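Predict the 3D structure for this chain.
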Amino acid sequence: MQATSKKKNDQNTQFTETFNFAVNREPCTLTVNTFKKGLLGERLNGITIISLSDLPKDKSVTSWYTITKPRKSNETTQGIVPTTTAIHKEDSFRKDKEKKKANQKAGKIGQIRLELLFQPVVIPEAPMKGITVEGEWTEELSMGNISSNPLWFKNPQFLLTVSKSCTVELELQQPANAEEPISFYVLNYDNDFFKGKPMTVMKLDNVVKLDDSALCPLFKLAGPTEPVTAKLSLKQGTYCIIPCSRAKAAGEFAEKPHLGRFKLGANCEEHPKRIALVRLPTADPWCELHIQGEWTEETSGGADIKESNWTKNPQYLLTVNKKTDLSITLHQDSFQTSIGVYVIKTEEPDRKAVWYKDEIATTAQCGFACSVGLVCPRVKPGTYIVIPCTFEGKQKGKFGMYVFSDDKKATIEPLTTTWAHQKTAKV
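Done. Predicted structure below.
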C-alpha cells in the first residue's frame, strides 16, 4: 500500500507498506482510518470506506480515495489535497488554499492512494459420500424456513426412496462465500397421491423428527468444510427432503429470498443400494392456479355448515375438464386466525351456493396456521365450489389460495351472484 500526504510545510510525504488480509465472504468493505497526533496522543480525524466486491481477480488496481471527517467528529482539521506538480508558484498555492477550504467545508480532509490486489483462494470441497444431487434457490423457489411459513412448498424438493429399512446420512452444503444459514426438513411423502410431483400439503405429523423436539438440523452457513448433517433411521417408504434458508421470504415478517446453489447428499453406509435420491418433480409438474381474497365482517360466516351464515363466506367456482388429482392450499400471512377449506359439487355454477351438499373434500378441522390444505384424488370433470372460511364468524383478514391439478385448462373465479330472493326461516 502506498500513501501520499502533505505536511504543514507543503512537502509531499510518501510511505510504502504492504498488508495482507483474508476476505471470507461477500460483500466486503475495507475501512481506512487516519489519525492525528496531539498533546494527549493520537486521535481519529479521517476515514474512507472502500468496496472490495468489484475488484478484478489477480489484477492490481491503483486509485485515489477521498478521506472525510468521521461523522461524529466535531474537530476542525486541516484539509489535505495532494498535488501532481512539484513547483508551487504563488498562483497555484492560492488555488490550492481555496480548494482546501472547499474540501474542508464538505468534510473532506485529504486523499490516500492505494494499490489493491485481490487473489482468490480456492477452498477444496470434501467429496460427499453416497448419492449427490445439485440444486438451486431461485426467485421462484426460495421461500425459506418451512416452519410457520405460508408458502413453504415454494422451495426445492427432493424425493428420497428407501427400499428397505436402514440408517441414512443426509448432508447439505453451499458455497463458502454464502451468508445465509441453511438446513433441511424431511417429510413423509404420499407417493400414491403426489406421484412424483412436489408436496403441496403438509401436516406437523408429516415431519420426520431428529429426536423428540428437533424438526431439523441446526441452521448454519454450511460451507464445504462444515455442511449441515443428520443421521436418520428410516423405514421402507418415500420421503421428501426440503433444503431451505433460515430467512423466510413469505408471511408476516418476510425477508429477501436467499439465492444460490447447493449440494444435497444421501448415504447408506451399510447398504448403499437401498436408497435413491432425485429432484422433484419426476413426472409432469402441477398445473397451478392462484387467487387472492379477503374476509370482512360481512363475508366471514364461520365454519359451521349447520348454520346458514356459512353462505356469507367467499365462494369460488372451480371448473375441471378431465379426471384429475386435486390439491388445494389456503394460506394467510400470520397464524392469528383459525382457517379451513370446503369443496362441494354444484350443478348451478352461475350463483353462490346456499345449500351445503355433495361434499367432495374438506380440511379435517380449522387450524391456527399460516396454511392449511386438502387433497382430492381422482376428481371427475365438472364444476365445484371452493369455500375458504374462518372458524369463527366476522373475522377479518386477507388470504390466498393455490389450486394444483393435472388439468391445464382448469379455471377458478370468484362467485358473486346470489339468489334474487332469499328468506331465512326457523324450522
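Confidence is low (pLDDT under 50) at residues 1-10, 73-89.
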